[in-house]
């Protein structure tokens, strides 16, 4: 067991302005998907895909940290490591945690390169408060991909829940060869013997990806929600959600949407202390592999978000309220008209929580720009165009070249009649989590230079209702 994470000195981050200071990431090396999230005996546990050998993907272990408040984390020893000559000899891939017979239990994917079924489902149990994990002698508990998949390669990331009838249910992400990404539904009494039921959902390849990963399936109110991560190309993947009805083991979506249009991937949901549905997602790096290796770290987890459905069955979200307790108010602007203004705000920094609300005229264009260089040329704009009903995220930077390169994303964000635009922006070094009206999410990664960062406020045909900006401390001090 690698104990190097214990008592780590999380000091180096101060010298690295791109390293987030209030989002969770390990002291060093590579992290991707959140795994096995669970609230257990008064504590939140996060496990995560972790490579102990460096800041690059490979040799997947499960890292582990614990928290009382979902904000401050304490590192614990690695929880799962590949076992030679076993179903997970090439890696312990993603999975979830449940409590079975009173014991914390992982259901995860074992990877075995070169094997006819290289991805199989495995079980591990903890007898010591989630610190060490004993792999089941029955592993793999599920090896066979349903024949209708017409492939035996992609079959991973089990998500398990207990139904009211006392049975365990599981969805596994996969694909149907030459068709699209798919999620398969299973049932079990003991987490060991699994019965295949039917596809829970089959996507459309051009819209939601040719392979699905990391499914989540859970009830919110009287509806059910499926969240999946869809591989759209070798470079891009997007998190989608479906809302619908679940009867007789069949899921019928009535609405679908994009959960995050940017760098978030492979989120995992779980149930919090007050039975609320929470979600944590991996915020991928968008800089080169060499830059990640040079930094010595790669991958961040989002601030946990609480989920609910609004009256139109749109999936709504907000950062957990616990985040408010570490904020320090830095600037607050009162209501005012914004007519063709771009105002430099009297605040600097890369570690902020921003809340803004705007009433929009028909011609309104408004928003805030973060991480602006003093001359205003390098910047990340988070704007809204009322005519287009779109959020416009534009990054202008020297990240990839000596000259300024701009990247623009336009995201549909229709507002209801008379609905103000609300923006929540969590800026944390290289992380920009943007949530508009608690339902449209875009995660941007930025690696700005130089490091004197300003904020700007822009508005045309707009009434600013409020702008509150908070300084955010390091969670590691
Ligand atoms: N990451 C894991 C897989 C999962 C993928 C491997 C999604 O289990 O499908 O590190 O990012």
**What hetero molecules are bound to the protein chains?**
2,5-dideoxy-2,5-imino-D-mannitol
Tell me about the biggest sheet?
A: 11 strands, antiparallel
Structure classification: mainly beta
Enumerate how many helices there are, as a single number.
Answer: 2
Tell me the strand percentage band.
over 45%
Q: Compute the CA-based radius of gyration.
A: 22 Å
Low-confidence stretches: 1-9
Percentage of residues assigned to helices: under 10%
Shape descriptor reads globular
**E-strand count:** 33
Report on this model:
- By secondary structure, the protein is mostly beta strands.
- Helix content is 2%, strand content 56%.
- The chain contains 2 helices and 33 strands.
- It has helices at 205-208, 289-295, and strands at 29-40, 43-51, 61-67, 74-80, 91-100, 103-111, 119-125, 134-135, 155-162, 168-176, 180-188, 195-202, 211-220, 223-231, 237-247, 250-260, 264-271, 277-283, 297-298, 300-301, 305-309, 315-319, 328-333, 336-338, 341-348, 351-372, 379-385, 390-397, 405-412, 421-428, 431-436, 440-445, 454-471.
- Strands 23, 24, 25, 26, 27, 28, 29, 30, 31, 32 and 33 form an 11-stranded antiparallel β-sheet that branches. Strands 4-3-2-1-19 form a 5-stranded mixed β-sheet. Strands 17, 18, 20, 21 and 22 form a 5-stranded antiparallel β-sheet that branches.
- β9 and β10 form a beta hairpin.
- The chain is globular.
- 46% of the residues are buried.
């Amino acid at each position: 067991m690698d104990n190097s994470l214990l008592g780590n000195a999380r000091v180096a981050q101060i010298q690295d302005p791109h390293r987030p200071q209030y989002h969770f990431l390990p002291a060093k090396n590579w992290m991707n998907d959140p795994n096995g999230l669970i609230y257990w005996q008064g504590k939140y546990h996060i496990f995560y895909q972790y490579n102990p050998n460096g800041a690059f993907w490979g040799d997947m272990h499960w890292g582990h940290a614990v928290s009382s408040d979902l904000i401050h984390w304490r590192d614990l020893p690695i929880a799962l490591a590949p076992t030679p000559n076993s179903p997970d000899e090439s890696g312990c891939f993603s999975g979830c945690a449940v409590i079975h017979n009173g014991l914390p239990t992982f259901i995860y994917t074992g990877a075995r390169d070169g094997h006819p079924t290289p991805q199989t489902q495995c079980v591990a149990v903890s007898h010591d408060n989630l610190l060490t994990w004993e792999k089941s002698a029955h592993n793999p508990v599920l090896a066979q991909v349903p024949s209708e998949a017409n492939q035996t390669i992609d079959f991973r990331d089990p998500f398990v829940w207990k139904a009211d009838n006392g049975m365990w249910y599981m969805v596994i992400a996969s694909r149907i060869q030459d068709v699209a990404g798919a999620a398969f539904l299973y049932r079990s009494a003991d987490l060991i013997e699994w019965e295949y039921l039917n596809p829970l959902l089959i996507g459309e390849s051009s819209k939601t990806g040719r392979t699905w990963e990391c499914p989540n399936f859970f009830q919110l109110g009287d509806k059910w929600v499926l969240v999946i991560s869809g591989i759209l190309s070798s470079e891009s993947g997007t998190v989608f959600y479906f809302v619908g009805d679940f009867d007789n083991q069949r899921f019928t979506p009535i609405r679908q949407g994009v959960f995050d249009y940017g760098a978030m991937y492979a989120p995992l949901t779980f149930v919090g202390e007050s039975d609320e549905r929470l979600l944590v997602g991996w915020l991928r790096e968008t800089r080169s592999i060499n830059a990640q290796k040079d930094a010595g770290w790669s991958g961040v987890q989002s601030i946990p978000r609480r989920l609910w459905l609004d009256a139109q069955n749109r999936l709504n979200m907000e950062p957990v309220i616990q985040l408010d307790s570490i904020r320090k108010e830095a600037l607050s602007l009162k209501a005012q008209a914004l007519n063709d203004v771009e105002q430099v705000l009297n605040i600097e920094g890369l570690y902020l929580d921003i809340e803004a609300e705007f009433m929009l005229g028909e011609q309104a264009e408004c928003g805030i720009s973060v991480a602006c260089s003093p001359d205003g040329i390098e910047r990340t704009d988070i704007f809204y165009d009322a005519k287009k009903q779109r959020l416009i995220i534009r990054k202008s930077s020297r990240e990839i070249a000596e000259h300024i390169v701009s990247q623009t994303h336009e995201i549909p964000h229709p507002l209801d009649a008379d609905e103000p635009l609300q923006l929540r922006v969590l800026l944390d070094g290289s992380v920009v989590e943007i949530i508009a009206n608690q339902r449209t999410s875009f995660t941007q990664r930025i690696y700005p230079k130089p490091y004197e960062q300003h904020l700007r406020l822009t508005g045309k045909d707009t009434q600013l209702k409020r702008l509150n900006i908070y300084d955010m401390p390091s969670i590691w001090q």
